[in-house]
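lol forgot to send this yesterday, sorry. struct tokens for the thing we talked abt
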């Protein structure tokens, strides 16, 4: 059985252009420099493609958290890498790959607010996956909304750290997951 493609490379390009258009409109008469923060590792492909379509001045930074194991969220968030820019009083854009339970972004928003007191926090996310939301969290700018609870791989999304490098988003088949499990086991 072949992969179920959810978003092709071409579709992703269109979705990301739409997100960039919204951001470009916000910064048409730019008076301050926002800091765009990529949530490692999943948001990386989206972040890299998005910032290249943004035609205003920005600073970038990176933060890393983890909450997923296999095909589901553990609900326990760990901060693995913090930002390095001074963002106090700045406009912050957190760029994330997906909102699932909402716990990761909820944690990140609170963490950044508490530790760094930015002027504003805007959440930009590629996929808003609605069914398993546990906290009341909405992104300010969303690429696409997914009504079904599907486990996605590709374009940043991973299965135990593999699959992030594909340039499209898909649902892996059972056979593919078995093959990956074998590979991962032999990699230990
Ligand atoms: P949340 O905390 O449950 O909202 O999950 C957010 C994080 O879980 C994201 O940043 C992703 O890294 C990961 N995640 C959520 N859904 C998927 C998926 O379908 N495939 C791979 N990773 C996912
Ligand atoms: Mg992520």
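and heres what i got for the seq, position by position
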């Amino acid at each position: 059985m072949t992969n179920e493609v959810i978003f092709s490379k071409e579709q992703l390009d269109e979705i990301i252009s739409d997100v960039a258009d919204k951001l470009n409109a916000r910064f048409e008469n730019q008076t301050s420099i926002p800091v765009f923060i990529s949530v490692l590792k999943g948001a990386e492909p989206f972040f890299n493609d998005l910032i290249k379509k943004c035609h205003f001045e920005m600073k970038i930074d990176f933060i890393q958290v983890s909450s997923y194991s296999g095909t589901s969220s553990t609900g326990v968030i760990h901060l693995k890498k913090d930002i390095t820019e001074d963002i106090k009083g700045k406009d912050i854009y957190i760029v994330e790959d997906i909102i699932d339970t909402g716990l990761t972004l909820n944690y990140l928003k609170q963490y950044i607010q508490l530790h760094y007191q930015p002027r504003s926090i805007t959440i930009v996310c590629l996929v808003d996956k609605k069914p398993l939301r546990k906290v009341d969290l909405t992104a300010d700018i969303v690429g696409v909304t997914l009504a079904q609870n599907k486990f996605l791989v590709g374009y940043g999304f991973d299965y135990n750290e593999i699959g992030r490098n594909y340039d499209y988003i898909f649902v892996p088949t059972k056979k593919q997951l078995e093959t990956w499990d074998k590979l991962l086991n032999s990699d230990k």
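The mean pLDDT is 94. anyway ping me if u want another try
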